[in-house]
Design brief:
Rossmann fold; two-stranded parallel ribbon; about 15% strand; alpha/beta; globular; 4 strands; two-stranded parallel sheet; 5 helices; single chain
């Protein structure tokens, strides 16, 4: 339990805020999609000071299917009121990109600094 709480208090990587700021200034709509439960992702975003960048924090628990199943990606499109083909997932995990493509969305792979693919 203590470890789970500490994971909700992690600061963002140094490049996250500048990247989100650039996207926001460019007019990008942003939301999160995670396998974590809704309260966990909300706490993580709030504690990291990132909540204001995202219009929605979408959890797979809302559709009872985990990524990379197609249901969470389609649910994200529904929440945002967009056709699935207009959603672009940005992820650092190949399995997430695969799930997104399978659901019919666009994707962008970001190689996290210091991490393997």
């Amino acid at each position: 339990m203590a470890l789970a709480r500490r994971l909700q208090d992690l600061p963002p990587h140094p490049d996250v805020v500048p990247a989100l700021t650039l996207l926001a200034e460019a007019g990008a709509r942003m939301a999160t999609l995670t396998n974590s439960p809704t309260p966990v992702v909300q706490n993580q975003l709030r504690n990291a000071g990132l909540s204001d960048y995202f219009e929605a924090a979408i959890s797979c628990d809302q559709v009872h299917a985990l990524k990379p199943a197609p249901q969470p990606y389609r649910h994200a499109a529904d929440v945002l009121g967009l056709p699935i083909g207009e959603i672009t997932l940005v992820a650092a995990h190949g399995w997430d990109i695969h799930g997104d493509q399978t659901a019919g969305a666009r994707c962008a792979f970001v190689a996290a600094a210091g991490r393997g693919r």
